[in-house]
C-alpha cells in the first residue's frame, strides 16, 4: 500500500528534475545565440616592450569550413608569411615581419565554431588591434555569416 503511494511521488520528482535540466539547457542556448557573431577584442601595450592584441568570436558554421577560409585568407594576404600550420588542430601562425599572429578554430558543435586570433608585436603599432579584429570580420564575410564588433 505504501509502495503504491511512493511511486507517483518518485515519478513527479523525476519529471521535475528532468524539466529543471531542460530549462537550464534552454537558458544556455539563449545566451549562446546572443553571443554568436559578436567579436570581442582585448589589447595590452607597453611603451617600450611587447604588446598583444586578441579577438574571439563564435561563428555559426562548421569548424573545418571556417579553418579553410582562415588558411585561404592568410595565404593570399600580401606581405604575410605562414610560419606554422597544424591542420588537425585547426591552427595557423604567421608574420608580416613586424608582428606575429596566430589563429585557432575550435569546434563547439556540428555547426558552431569558435575563432580566436592573437597577435604580438613590439613598439607602437597602432594598427595591430584593427588588423586582428578585421581578420575575423573578413572570415565572417567569406563564410557569409553576420559578425560585428561587440559593444563595450
Summed up:
By secondary structure, the chain is an alpha+beta fold.
Helix content: 40-55%
Structural class: alpha+beta
Which fold name is given in CATH as the topology of the largest domain? Alpha-D-Glucose-1,6-Bisphosphate, Chain A, domain 4
Low-confidence stretches: none
**Spatial arrangement of strands, main beta sheet:** 3-4-5-6-2-1-7
Instruction: Characterize the main sheet.
Output: 7 strands, mixed
**Total number of distinct structural domains:** 2
- State the shape: elongated
Q: Would you write up a description of this structure?
A:
The longest helix has 34 residues, at 2-35. The mean pLDDT is 78. The protein folds into two domains: 1-35; 36-149, START domain (Alpha-D-Glucose-1,6-Bisphosphate, Chain A, domain 4). The protein has helices at 2-35, 63-75, 128-143; strands at 38-44, 50-59, 81-86, 91-95, 99-109, 112-122, 148-149. Strands 3-4-5-6-2-1-7 form a seven-stranded mixed beta sheet, with helices on one face. Helix 2 crosses helix 3. The protein has three helices and seven strands. With 152 residues, it is α+β, with helices and mostly antiparallel strands.
Quickly list its features.
2 domains, elongated, 34% strand, alpha+beta, 152 residues, Alpha-D-Glucose-1,6-Bisphosphate, Chain A, domain 4
